[in-house]
Amino acid sequence: MPSSITKAAAVSDDTQVLALFETLALDAGREIMRIFEAGCAVETKADTSPVTDADRASECIILEGLRDAFPGIVCVAEEEASAGVRPGELGEAFFLVDPLDGTKEFVARRSDFTVNIALIRNGVPEVGVVFAPCSGRFFSGRPGLAETLWVGDDYTVVARQRVSVREPSMTQTVVASRSHNTPQTDEYIISLGAAEIVSVGSSLKFCLLAAGEADVYPRFSRTMEWDTAAGDAVLRAAGGMTRTVDGAPLSYGKRNIADDVDFANPFFIARGVEPA
Asked: Does the model's pTM come out above 0.85?
């Protein structure tokens, strides 16, 4: 068995990290779908958002796998954070996990909920996977390479294809949140002029940009870093970028935020190709 030092150092190997992420996302997706088909109770967390056994089971699978493979790397995960489990120092590299992004979609029995795992280095989301187990859509990314994966009925990857962002046309395709749209979002979309709007839940919004299926994703409502990190990593790997409304790249590992909690995101705009 490799030593902890060896395992921790291996976090610099993007190919190894991504392979583990893909395996864990598939395992978590299988368990989520088992619970989805069987049905489960829905609870309400302190922030009024829903949580289910599927969220917890998925997070357990992912964290166990990450901590076994990389015991020296901090994991920040949504359900642990909701339970008050917060890490001390994050270090230069840490993992961000949203075990079931789009729990509202899951509860409503819609298909676009996702499993999300990301590696953050120096505040930048560099490696990530997004798996929508109900629809079978799977995206992965590491610096210089973003792919869409085809998943078989046995939850194994049967094919993969490189994806990249597209040059926007006169009529831009905008992806918007199904559950969290706001008047500010509507105003921004109007400011773009002619635009086709696609409403989709969860982190798949980033992935549609990465795959060249959409052009811009404005977010003028609350998100947390675990909501966005994996999809943002895929988008950046495909050639896109996510910036705050002030124009700075969206960063990760934010602590001691004035008037907000740790790991909260400001409003942002994600694009496939940034305007000249």
From this structure: yes
Please compute Rg for the chain using Cα positions: 18
The pLDDT tens digits of the residues spanning 188-227 come to 988 988 789 998 888 999 999 999 999 999 999 999 999 9
**Residue 264, beta-bridge partner list:** 224
User: By the 8 A CB rule, do 237 and 246 touch?
Assistant: no
In this structure, the number of other CB atoms found within 10 A of the CB of residue 24 comes to 24
C-beta neighbour count of 252 within 10 angstroms: 25
Angstrom distance (rounded) from CA 205 to CA 218:
10
pLDDT above 90 covers a percentage of the chain that reads 71
Burial class (CB within 10 angstroms; exposed 0-12, middle 13-18, buried 19+) of 67: middle
DSSP assignment of 3-55: -HHHHHHGGG-HHHHHHHHHHHHHHHHHHHHHHHHH---EEE-TTS-EEEHHH
